[in-house]
Design a protein that fits this description.
Elements: H1 28-43, H2 47-61, H3 81-93, H4 97-103, H5 106-115, H6 122-130, H7 136-141, H8 149-156, H9 158-161, E1 165-166, H10 167-184, E2 189-193, H11 194-197, E3 202-203, E4 206-211, H12 218-231, E5 235-241, E6 262-271, H13 282-287, E7 289-298, H14 304-312, H15 315-329, E8 331-333, E9 338-340, E10 345-346, H16 352-358
Parallel strand pairs: 4-7
Antiparallel strand pairs: 1-3, 2-4, 5-6, 6-7, 8-9, 9-10
The structure holds guanosine-5'-triphosphate and manganese (II) ion (2 copies).
One manganese (II) ion binds near residues 194 and 203.
């Protein structure tokens, strides 16, 4: 790999959707530091600073060369005073003191631990921290704390679901979902999405899109899949959300809101015998099974391309795609649709390529969307 910027340096876009970002990260020492800072700002509800560090990390991830001096960053977008100060520390001392301080901070460590539980977000974690709770046993021993069903499952399966899911495990789950789907209707289709579609070897969960060719049948399809998994004894947890999709509504460019398609957040039981080479979790392998987090989403067929694009991620790539659409094209994009504010009309798409083309962007492959 090259270690210095080639000359002349091609301009790097401020938008992740105009950069090709593979999983090969030549600037990990910086991006890992930025990620800690972003998370710390997230815990402090400082969305602006959090996003600034995520954007900076994303720019560095896209570079095919390693940054070896501050001078090399001079033409790069999204790097402010604060990010450059952190980079300077990393360049000269091999570490950032600000990051070290955050990592050794009790509040940061506790919030990080609490939010690692399925169903616990920064707000709940903060509430528990303010009550003086510091460990899982503190939480489980506190009778005044009510855990919802999701959090109860999160604690119950903590060991399994905090361990990464391997590609082999994801492919085995695809066979299981495929089987459940085709028992219902042979015409339905299953696609692996999320991080695994971007080529990742490991993930925190496995994401699938399921579709049926008959418009309006997607809610029913999902319920039938859930039923099939339950009858096979594979369903350990299920949070099903019926569709609230309204095709007349304009796309919401804000990324934070989840889409309105029918979906479910599951914890499934995966048998070791079903996975080529065995389970990734060592403990689970001796037990013969492990718990895995699985997300299923079921858009109507005419929204398939938008849903696939949104669920393929990465989050930063999707954020910038929406930001680019709005700021550079006066278009509104979300997981449901693309709307042209100039023409005042919706733009249909049957493939991801159609969406990139509508936006006047070069096509970026899923494995180049690891922004
Ligand atoms: P790992 O699962 O950690 O390997 O990464 P991933 O990229 O698959 O992340 P995740 O499963 O959390 O999310 C998959 C995709 O679902 C993301 O890329 C997002 O596009 C979408 N998604 C997840 N959470 C949200 C959310 O809160 N809002 C929106 N709009 N989309 C989300
Ligand atoms: Mn995922
Ligand atoms: Mn997911």
């Amino acid at each position: 790999a090259t270690v210095s910027p080639p000359t002349p340096v091609a301009t790097v876009s401020q938008y992740a959707c105009q950069r090709r970002t593979t999983l090969e990260n030549h600037n990990k020492i910086f991006t890992e530091a930025f990620e800690v800072l972003a998370e710390s700002y997230e815990f402090n509800m400082n969305e602006g600073q959090c996003l600034a560090f995520r954007r900076a990390a994303s720019v560095l991830k896209s570079l095919p060369w390693a940054v070896l001096s501050l001078g090399a960053t001079q033409d790069l977008p999204c790097l402010g005073q604060h990010t450059k100060k952190v980079m300077e520390e990393v360049l000269y001392y091999g570490r950032s003191f600000e990051v070290d301080n955050i990592l050794s901070d009790e509040r940061f460590q506790t919030l990080k631990l609490f939010t690692s539980v399925f169903g616990v977000g920064p707000k709940t974690a903060e509430k528990w921290y303010c009550r003086g709770l510091r460990s899982f046993s503190d939480i489980l021993a506190d009778r005044s704390i009510h855990l919802n069903r999701m959090q109860q499952s999160g604690f119950l399966h903590y060991g399994d679901i905090s361990r990464a899911v391997s590609k082999a495990e994801a492919l085995s789950l695809r066979n299981i979902i495929d089987g459940a789907v085709h028992a219902i209707t042979p015409a339905a289709a299953v696609a692996l999405t999320g991080g695994f579609r971007r080529g990742k070897e490991f993930g925190h969960d496995v994401d699938f899109i399921v579709t049926t060719p008959e418009l309006g049948k997607e809610d029913r399809l999902l319920l039938n899949i859930i039923d099939g998994l339950k009858r096979q004894g594979l369903l350990l947890y299920c949070d099903y959300q019926a569709s609230t999709f309204d095709m007349a509504k304009l796309p919401n460019h804000r990324f934070k809101a989840m889409d309105n398609f029918s979906k479910c957040f599951l914890i499934l039981r995966l048998e070791s015998s079903q996975v080529e080479g065995g389970l990734h979790s060592v403990e689970g392998d001796s037990r013969g099974w492990r718990a895995v987090r699985v997300d299923l989403v079921s858009p109507p067929l005419d929204r398939y391309a938008f849903a696939l694009m949104g669920w393929t991620g990465s989050r930063q790539f999707q954020r910038d795609l929406r930001r680019f659409a709005r700021a550079e094209r006066r278009m509104l994009l979300d997981n449901h649709a693309l709307y042209d504010k100039n023409k005042k009309e919706f733009l249909a798409a049957s493939t991801e390529k159609d969406i990139f083309a509508h936006l006047g962007l070069e096509y970026i492959e899923p494995w180049q969307r690891n922004a």
